[in-house]
Amino acid sequence: MEENKNLEMLHEDIENIRPIRPGELIKGKVIKKGEEGYFVNINYKAEGILPFKEKLTDGEGEILNDTEEGEEIWVVVNRFDDQGYVWLSREKARYRGAWIDIEESMNSGKPLIAKVLKKVKGGLTVNIGVNAFLPASCVDKVPQNLDEYLDKTLTVKVIEADRRTRNVVVSHKVILEEEDLKKKQETIATLEIGQIRKGIVKNITSFGAFIDLGGIDGLLHISEISWGRIGKLEDIFNKGDEIDIRVIGWDPVKEEISLSMKRLKPDPWENIDGKYKVGDIISGKVVKDIGFGAIVELDEGINGFIHISQLSNKKLNSISESVSVGDVIDFEIIEVDIQQKKIKLSRKNLLPKEKEETINEETNNKFKENDYSAYVDVFVPKNTQ
Description:
The protein is of the alpha+beta class. The chain is built from 4 helices and 22 strands.
């Protein structure tokens, strides 16, 4: 019985053995380490030997074959020796497999992993199983210092390949653009006016900042950053900062998004009923000289206006004859219009009367005609919520 069982097992082993030819790509299992290389079971009547070193297929030099017992590896049949051993090549298998991946990447857009080897004229040399060229224009969406990519691993796609000349060109930028497009589609699908989102400060300009919401940018206008007055935007945030913003406008046709930081908080004018009354004396800071008067900050987001005729009991040629930007002084409230968001101020009753100079009716009428305070307003962007 035992003898018959052994004969059956031998017969099965013989049936599993198939003929192999030089150049054939096969999978084998590492059995043990020998003196000249690794012994590999390739389901053949003789064991295969994978040498410790091999010459590179696509260049000068050698490559070390580092493997361990039990590992399954792809190899190419290289040659048969006089003792019946089959000499194998992992380098040729790697090279052949690399070109299979390259062709698949060309045809279907399959992403490949590339190791950056060195900087060359016009770009970088990377390895994707074979050496390939990564042009500087295809490294990132914006120009970068190529030295920063040395020894890094990047995901790339093949954009040109010629097996005959062994030339391969890859792009990392196309991967980034595809990722951005996917993020953009996801962002647009969930975008709603009024919602609060997180964004990354992408660029700061004189009129505001562009915020990356995920594949698409929104504009945070300088007038939407704070209810109060602000200085430099760099004092509030820096490029690369993550901030909270509210979506206040969205044009799906033009793909334009308007954002606001100040509207994360209530409008200060909504809660001032009874806080500012005609006749009250309040302290304020002169924040802007507009020629015919001055803007006075009374609180964050609450500004008042004082006409030049209300700064003094004598005629002034400019407001600098009475106050300067930055001065913090007392003012009297002479008019409050909460609906129009206007507060008019005066200092005339807080100053000594001028004895030698009186302002006649003609001068008063002139000041009234030139009182542009009705045109002084807090800027609120239109078509936003």
